[in-house]
Specification:
With 419 residues, the protein is an alpha/beta fold. It folds into two domains: 7-30 and 61-280, Aspartate Aminotransferase, domain 2, CATH 3.40.640.10; 283-416, Aspartate Aminotransferase, domain 1. Helices cover 40% and strands 13% of the residues. The protein has helices at residues 7-18, 40-47, 62-74, 86-97, 112-124, 137-145, 166-175, 241-247, 252-264, 270-280, 283-304, 322-328, 344-352, 383-389, 405-417; strands spanning 79-83, 103-107, 128-132, 150-154, 179-183, 200-204, 218-222, 310-312, 336-340, 358-359, 369-372, 395-399. Helix 7 links the parallel strand 4 (150-154) and strand 5 (179-183). It binds pyridoxal-5'-phosphate (PLP). The site of pyridoxal-5'-phosphate has 17 residues, from helix 4 and helix 5. Pyridoxal-5'-phosphate (PLP) binds at residues 85-87, 111, 113-114, 154, 158, 183, 185-186, 204, 206-207, 216, 218, 363.
Length: 419
């Protein structure tokens, strides 16, 4: 798989897509919640989607629209919907596509919020699920054969850092005409699943896409629906056929707007989308640098950590995911690495000794961040779930930022030496 990203290309694309050449160079914000219609005929046209103008901000806003077109383009997609948060994007897609009695296949480890959405909330609404390891292709294929409605996975396991064979999973989902959604939060620009045949990509734009931690947000990006033989026309999606036949290429948008956004209201707000665009302008520059920094910090810690503290990152030859990193993620697999201190007590001492790195539950920030896993995000999870997600008592998740990687490594080394 040739998966190299031309960061120079995206630097040019993003600064010019976010900015304007004429008039106000920065994006303008349209904060209005409601929009006046020219006349009764125009109102009718807007409601039936034959006139493309804003209806009411819960179902779309021009500032969100700008962000949506920018993200759709850099992801290689056809259309997008900006949401109030990353969980908003994931829950929008799940509630738009799934009915009570449907089954969801979840491959690999998941962000805690997605895991509880699937296991608790969607389960309460009658959606069943199964989870499997990224390389359990027997389970994946058997489940697809059974007629599962949707497959979801993350581009990089968080915090396990397992790397899936993205292309192989997408190909299987296409073979069995099953909608596949990939959470690409950790790897914008590094991995572009829609160009590999995926149906839906979701992001928490709160993370890498913004980088500045000034805006909570999410985006779902969609491919174009095929004019003939699209998988959405498979009998298992029969409740979508009316929309697909009427709306054609752009059907993913009304599917999500009419079956989720309109009724649940997980819509982005204009100010949040504006702040997200401020981040997106420099996304390629930051992704390139942060991924270089992660590999440098991992290498320094691998070399210098004392006995009893271990760093895990797929760039290290010791990682079980190293071969897939080299072949499929040659420019990096996102901002995360993990540190194993052995026990919770030692992990707490380590974290409390940090001087530069910030303790928080976020990832993908311009600053380097760290968090103990079992006492925070995974505190409510039972032993079996933790084991599956690769979370154990001594584990610290780290998200590397833009600081000098030598300074960041030195901060971790002095903390390790304090143990
Ligand atoms: C943070 C995160 C989410 C959820 O995003 P929010 O913006 O916090 O709702 C989903 N997936 C991944 C991989 C994340 O890191």
């Amino acid at each position: 798989m040739n998966n190299t990203t031309d960061f120079d290309f995206f630097n040019t694309q993003l600064v010019h897509n976010v900015g304007n050449r004429v008039g106000p160079i920065a994006q303008t914000i349209t904060p209005s919640a409601a929009f006046g219609y020219q006349n009764a005929e125009e109102a009718e046209g807007i409601f039936s989607a034959t006139v493309n103008k804003p209806l009411y901000a819960r179902v779309g806003n021009p500032t969100n629209g700008k962000l949506e077109s920018i993200v759709a383009e850099f992801e290689g997609g056809f259309s997008a919907i900006a949401t109030a948060s990353g969980m908003g994007a994931i829950s929008m897609v799940c509630t738009a596509f799934l009915n009570a009695g449907d089954e969801l296949l979840c491959i690999g480890g998941f962000f805690g919020g997605t895991y509880s959405l699937v296991n608790e909330t969607l389960a309460r609404f009658g959606v069943t699920n199964s989870f499997c390891e990224v390389d359990d292709f027997t389970h994946i294929e058997n489940t697809l054969k059974r007629g599962v409605k949707m497959v979801i996975f993350e581009s990089v396991g968080n915090p396990s850092l397992t790397l899936p064979d993205v292309q192989r999973i997408i190909n299987l989902c296409n073979q069995y005409e099953t909608v596949v959604m990939i959470d690409n939060t950790a790897t914008p620009l590094l991995l572009r699943p829609l160009t590999m045949g995926a149906d839906i990509v979701v992001h928490s734009s709160t993370k890498n896409m913004s980088g500045h931690s000034a805006a909570l947000g999410g985006v779902a990006v969609f491919r174009a629906v095929k004019e003939e033989g699209d998988k959405l026309l498979n009998a298992k999606y029969k409740d979508l056929h009316k929309i697909v036949k009427k709306m054609g290429k752009k059907a993913f948008i009304p599917i999500c707007k009419k079956r989720a956004i309109r009724d649940f209201g997980m819509t982005a707000n204009a100010f949040g989308s504006f702040m997200t665009m401020v981040g997106v302008e420099t996304l390629a520059l930051r992704v390139e640098r942060i991924n270089q920094n992660v590999a440098k910090v991992a290498a320094l810690l691998d070399e210098k950590f004392p006995e009893g503290v271990r760093v895990n990152h797929p760039s290290l030859a010791s990682s079980p995911d190293h071969a897939r990193y080299v072949s499929d993620f040659p420019q990096g697999c996102g901002p995360l690495l993990s540190i194993d201190c052995g026990t919770k007590e030692r992990a707490f001492t380590f974290l409390n000794a940090l001087k530069l790195v910030i303790l928080t539950a976020n990832i993908g920030d311009n600053r380097s961040l760290a968090l103990h896993m079992t006492s925070t995000i995974y505190a409510d999870f039972d032993e079996e779930a933790r084991k599956f997600l690769g979370v154990h008592e001594g584990l610290i998740r780290v998200s590397i930022g833009l600081e000098n990687p030598v300074s960041v490594a030195e901060d971790f080394l002095q903390a390790a030496n304090a143990l």
